[in-house]
Amino acid sequence: MIIYINDKACEAESGSLLLHAAQHNKAHIGCICGGNGICQSCFVYVREGAELLSPPGDEEKAFISDKLFKEGGRLACQTVITGEGTIRVLTRAEHLRRIVLGLNVPGFITYARTIGYNVTTKLPEGASNVIARVRGGKLNPLESIGKIAGGAEYGANFALHTALETLPILQAPFSFVSGALQAPVSFVSGALQTPVSLISGALQETISLVSSALQAPVSFVSGALQTPLSLVSMATGGIFSTANGILCSISGGRISLPGTSCSPDDGAKAKLVENVTITVR
After folding, report:
1. Does the pLDDT at position 233 exceed 80?
2. In the prediction, which pLDDT does 173 show?
3. Residue 202 included in any domain
4. What is the pLDDT of residue 145?
5. DSSP letter string over 198-210?
6. What is the chain's alpha carbon radius of gyration, rounded to the nearest angstrom?
7. Do the Cβ atoms of 53 and 73 come closer than 8 Å?
8. CB-hemisphere CA count at 13 Å for 38?
């Protein structure tokens, strides 16, 4: 399907993020945080096709005020294309550029008021949302660093691509500079990703070791307790059985301890005792 980002036709598929669709088509949507949903650099205005997008999640609600939602505001890194049809979006930068170039003073005042209101009312909630996601394990700080590095690399490449499209005469020198810069940028990105992976693996291994270390003493204590408990249970059962036998014998098999019964032999023994005749001379 075709969607329009800043009036640029872009190929997209249902199920993909708006941010990824822009990146694949080299259309401008900011991504300072690398798509972690912790900033508003990927903020866009949905001008058409809002019903073809996923509903706002908690991350978007934490950063976008009701006023901006009414104007079609969304975070491209959190918005998924869910249906086929026409979708048109404007980035915040493009929206402001058009206001300025059109000398739309009332529009600029309204824009400034709306953005100011959003910042003052949603900043605390946005910060709380980020902290809650980190504590809940939904946002890994180490992975976030890797995404930010990837976003910086994409931003540098996009700026170079835009410059070449705007000023074709600079393609030759920029091609040379691009080749010279790609190596260090890729190296830095790889250098950041490597320690992130190592630290993540080390943390997982430590958690596994601690879990195994805790299981051993628990199993030992459980086994150690089972033996004396079994012995006490057997001893108690024997005493209880003996006491019941004595009570049955004395009562002639008519009275037993709660939960037990007298055997026929207990009654027979009692009757035999009752039939003894004692004669005094």
Report:
1. no
2. 57
3. no
4. 86
5. HHHHHHHHHHHHH
6. 39
7. no
8. 19
- Residues 120/134, Cβ–Cβ less than 8 Å: no
The secondary structure element, H or E, covering residue 46 is strand 43-48
Contacts of 235 (CB under 8 A, 6+ apart): none
Identify whether the C-beta of residue 111 lies closer than 8 Å to the C-beta of residue 95.
yes
Domain extent, residue 122, equals 1-139
Which tokens sit at 139? Answer: 């946002």
| 239 in a structural domain | no
Which contacts (CB < 8 Å, 24+ apart) does range 197-202 have?
199/142, 200/140, 200/142, 200/143
Neighbours of 133 (CB within 10 A): 19
Q: Tell me which of 185 and 136 has the higher pLDDT.
A: 136
In a domain, 264, yes or no: no
Please, which residues bridge with residue 89 across strands?
5, 46
Measured distance CA(27)–CA(7) in Å, rounded = 10
The model scores a pTM over 0.70: no
Residue 114 · residue 71 · CB < 8 Å: yes
Q: What H or E segment, with its residue span, contains residue 74?
A: strand 73-75
Compare 20 and 252 and report the one with higher pLDDT.
20
Arithmetic mean of pLDDT, 197-218: 53
Provide the domain count of the chain: 1
Whether 153 is covered by a domain: the verdict is no
Task: Write down the residue that tokens 């810069």 correspond to.
Answer: 181
The CATH number that applies at residue 100 is 3.10.20.30
Tell me the C-alpha distance between 89 and 7, whole Å.
Answer: 8
Q: What is the C-alpha to C-alpha distance for residues 206 and 161, in angstroms, rounded to an integer? A: 44
